């Protein structure tokens, strides 16, 4: 929560929930990443928040961009950033989207299997590709499934094939899991990466780059290590596994770049109990899983919530959204402590909501509009 | 799948996934409900699919409408249906939305606690209210949480309070769970309802209506009983618990009205394995949890998928969506049997997708547009 957001909300006249994002915080976050990892290029993960103001700011500061689709590529190009600052980082791409990206000047693509390499060789000849390796997401609050990547041995063969098909076998990527709270988690993947670098070098293929992925956390309720601690741990692992031949590195922060820059203002619509003897109150907000808080799925992300009654006595509450959908419940398995004095009509502030909120919003489920967002 | 949908898709030239909905099927479904429950008024659950063509058709056929928000109320009024055919069926409403609905002519509201009754008494004086009772959702594929409703004893007191505040204590509602495959599940709730009818009658309050909710299933992979079986089972329970004084009844089908009217056409973007020894293939589509298939959450709804290779040998596959989000996996715990001959670029048809797909779609997660829909 910043003074600028507080001032903005005080003067806001619109109705309904909204997310307010303070660009000053994004600016500080970018500077922290640049300082903590001075030899690493930052590729902002556009999917976390593609607001034009965010992309403009980061483009001006020199950031590069990790994109998931042609639309995201176009959003970045609209800032004036040149295509060589853009990675098409989705391992799952239609061949015609690769062709379109190539036409737009994109020359850096993610892959995790031979079929994807073949598509790129056909429609984006000569491009650089990096192969995503599977990586155990232990320690992450939003652990990644096996959806992206292949086992390290296969990654080597995928890159060999890229080389054979006239592409530049550029490097490797991995992702330690979103909201990763352990800075040491990069070490195992860097060890695997160094092995593949050596294996391919023996076959005459010189990899140049390791994409360290995202995973840098934003502070929700628990404290998280400073980005500096990540920089130090990663540098030590690079030194350990690559010695004096440290490759180019890139990072792809999304949540870590914009998460703590945003605050959602929401309203308490109803407070009730299910029976008169019930000790558990249900608190219903005008925002839920379908208009911004999708990351409460399985209660994975637990946002800090501020009310005007903080400091008063609290009681655990089930927190739910406003739709007629029974899965639109935010915290129930692990109820949320909220002030007893909280009232219907009270405003609440949901912090750390700058990432993965606005674009996750449903187009109009139950007739509720998508989350409104203001970038200040 | 209907011939009309097949013909439409054959001539379609747009790119990207889409949902095609055949109004003839909706017409048949409405007629089946009307025939199976001849003394029951049908309130279509607009949230299942608010496409104007669907609302227009149902309005012309005489349907009433269950709405979740002021926007949905306005969508129904746009068909020319009069406000007395609309229920504001969300138990979680802002007081200013109740006031707005009242201005629009709405006089029928759902409640499940005293605080909601107070709001309605203040801004929608004299309206009818019905109280939602909690109901065990056993047997449902999309079971409802405890989010809506209160225990039956409390429901009686909530209606008494409505009466005291000058509202019409109109009746009770319950919901046996979405995609409810057991027609006998209405019996227990009707028994509870009849007890409350008797209790309140003794205090001079005459309830008139039982809202039997939704829950009527659409056929996905498993066979479901015909709507006629539901009509018979419900009528038997009404007779058993209410004798000769059967109240007015309404039903709120959503999925049962439009689910089987829609088909999604999607494309295979990638087929890969995670290691060379892996026996499990990953099949990635251009549609996933964030652009239409949200109901695959926890693998709850399992849609039938048709391919041009049906009949060929199959193998279990993990099925996933196109976004860079690791939770965008449709079926993994219980992999999906798909033909070995399926290829990158193949089209697949996902059946039973007329309900809870288009509006659940994210505004633009990863830059992917919301699901396009055609109503024919």
UniProtKB/TrEMBL annotation, chains A, B:
<comment type="similarity">
    <text>Belongs to the Orn/Lys/Arg decarboxylase class-II family.</text>
</comment>
<comment type="pathway">
    <text>Amine and polyamine biosynthesis; putrescine biosynthesis via L-ornithine pathway; putrescine from L-ornithine: step 1/1.</text>
</comment>
<feature type="modified residue" description="N6-(pyridoxal phosphate)lysine">
    <location>
        <position position="47"/>
    </location>
</feature>
<feature type="active site" description="Proton donor">
    <location>
        <position position="324"/>
    </location>
</feature>
<dbReference type="GO" id="GO:0033387">
    <property type="term" value="P:putrescine biosynthetic process from arginine, via ornithine"/>
</dbReference>
<dbReference type="GO" id="GO:0004586">
    <property type="term" value="F:ornithine decarboxylase activity"/>
</dbReference>
<dbReference type="Pfam" id="PF02784">
    <property type="entry name" value="Orn_Arg_deC_N"/>
</dbReference>
<keyword id="KW-0456">Lyase</keyword>
<dbReference type="InterPro" id="IPR022653">
    <property type="entry name" value="De-COase2_pyr-phos_BS"/>
</dbReference>
<dbReference type="InterPro" id="IPR002433">
    <property type="entry name" value="Orn_de-COase"/>
</dbReference>
<dbReference type="InterPro" id="IPR009006">
    <property type="entry name" value="Ala_racemase/Decarboxylase_C"/>
</dbReference>
<dbReference type="InterPro" id="IPR029066">
    <property type="entry name" value="PLP-binding_barrel"/>
</dbReference>
<protein>
    <recommendedName>
        <fullName>ornithine decarboxylase</fullName>
        <ecNumber>4.1.1.17</ecNumber>
    </recommendedName>
</protein>
<dbReference type="GO" id="GO:0005737">
    <property type="term" value="C:cytoplasm"/>
</dbReference>
<feature type="domain" description="Orn/DAP/Arg decarboxylase 2 N-terminal">
    <location>
        <begin position="25"/>
        <end position="258"/>
    </location>
</feature>
<dbReference type="InterPro" id="IPR022644">
    <property type="entry name" value="De-COase2_N"/>
</dbReference>
<dbReference type="InterPro" id="IPR000183">
    <property type="entry name" value="Orn/DAP/Arg_de-COase"/>
</dbReference>
<keyword id="KW-0663">Pyridoxal phosphate</keyword>
